[in-house]
Amino acid sequence: MIAIKTIDLSKSYKDICAVDSLNLEIQEGELFSLLGVNGAGKTTTIKCLSCLSKVNSGDALILGKSILKNAMDVKELISVSPQETAIAPNLSVRENLEFICGVNGFDKNKARNYTQKTIDTFDMKEIKNKQAKKLSGGWQRRLSIAMALINEPKILFLDEPTLGLDVIARRELWGIIKNLKKKMTIVLTTHYMEEAEALSDRIGIMSKGKLVALGTAKELIAKTKSKNFENAFISIASEGGKTK
Amino acid sequence: MKIAALSLRNWKEIVRDKLNISFGLGFPLVLILLLSFIQKNIPVSMFELSQMTPGIIIFGFTFLSLFSGMLIAKDRTSSLFMRLFTSPLKPSHFVLSYYIPFLPIALLQAVFIYFVALLLGLNLNINILGSILVSLPAAIMFISLGVLCGTIFNDKQVGGICGAFLTNFSAWLSDTWFDIDLVGGAFAGVAKALPFYHAVEAGRFALAGEYSKIFPDLWWVMGYAIAISALAIWIFGKKMNYDK
Asked: What interface predicted TM-score (ipTM) does this complex get?
């Protein structure tokens, strides 16, 4: 089943076209990475798909629900882990998780159970009563992703989830993301090529708002006749899709 | 459940910021003590506790605008808000969650100021309760002003507008520090067209047990509270729907 389908999706900011007639299909259970240089349109695409930005033209269907006509239904299906760590800094880890449960309409018992389950899954027992602002960057990001998952979304948007993390924290997060594969559809944006290569089922590369390449990491390497995926990405992104 | 979760989070954010408590209670405390000492040395009818205390309460409420405005302005630019905007929440959930935690704080402020006034010699009587209740529409009006400013301006601008401008502006025009009829002219006209003077007058009448006189002063305050609340909710709703 198709989890996400965009139909000529376009978004402009004044004179700048951030997303230009995007047509894309992502299958249910797929981990799809959206790559591109800064300003390529990755984050804007996620904002449009998560009903944060109003599109100028086109539409997108999230499990069959239109982002234009059924925004509230779409929001019930998705969760977003934004680029920056999205936590309430003055609340403890447990309070942050319970807060998101409440926001999603869970009753007290369900909130308590889901919070405990998430604390166990994300190995946060020792820090559960610590204020979020006092956690290290890696733990804050882990909490941020845990908050995005607590409502068990059908589709998860991870916008540069490992940005600024040290190599160990990044690898730990990779482990968490790998465990989520097949359980839900994941759309990931990242600037780390090895991350996209290691985690993704398929990769889309954007340049100047357009989707200029689509395929598995191996397919894109083969298409560009590159030595590795990083070179393939550079080749595609710098040529703006001539290799598509 | 959703409103309760948001309100609880906002409550925790407010009370865990020690500056909020020290400003919200500390400033009115210093003023009531200072003016009481002046009154003891140089008796001025305006600084008698029965006249001054309702004015100090209204002055204390100006900090509600500052706190609510700062909280919303900071929240609006945070990634946490981006996460919340992608969850199934309506603008009314957000707006109510800012009002609800500030109302008990307003009540606490009023009770605290009357407690200090009692220690300084104010007669204990049931009209204190009446005066506190009559001051609540003013509390709602100040919270609305904060919600409105926080929705429109950034946190630095809110600090200037609600922190410096509103606290002084409302104090000068409230008939608490000096008799506005002594200034007369356009100044008195402006003061009587705004709600601050009427909020203090209504509180004074209630404290004196002259409940038949609290109107039309209380109508003025309630009118402003309703108008500003409606405007704040409308603008917040507009901003929430595709703010980015």
From this structure: 0.79
Find, in chain B, the residue whose alpha carbon is nearest to that of A82. Answer: B79
Helix (H, G, I), strand (E, B) or coil at A89: coil
Check CB contact under 8 Å for B86 and A54. Answer: no
- A228 to chain B nearest CA, in Å? 34
Query: Do the Cβ atoms of A103 and B13 come within 8 Å?
Result: no
Indicate the angle between helix axes B91-120 and B217-240, nearest 10 degrees: 140
In chain B, what is the greatest distance between 2 CA atoms, to the nearest angstrom?
60
Cβ contact, residue pair B89, A54, below 8 Å:
no
Cα B44 versus chain centre, distance: 26
Question: Residue B164, Cβ neighbours under 10 Å: how many?
Answer: 11
Q: Considering CB atoms only, which of A52, A102, A144 is closest to B5? A: A102
pTM of the model as a whole: 0.81
CA distance B115 to B106: 14
CA separation for the pair B41, A167 (Å, rounded)? 69
Direct distance between the N- and C-terminal alpha carbons of chain A, in angstroms, rounded to an integer: 25
Q: Please give the structure tokens belonging to residue B179.
A: 């008799």
A165-187 pLDDT, tens per residue? 778 878 888 888 888 887 899 99
Over residues A192-204, the pLDDT tens digits come to 999 999 999 999 9
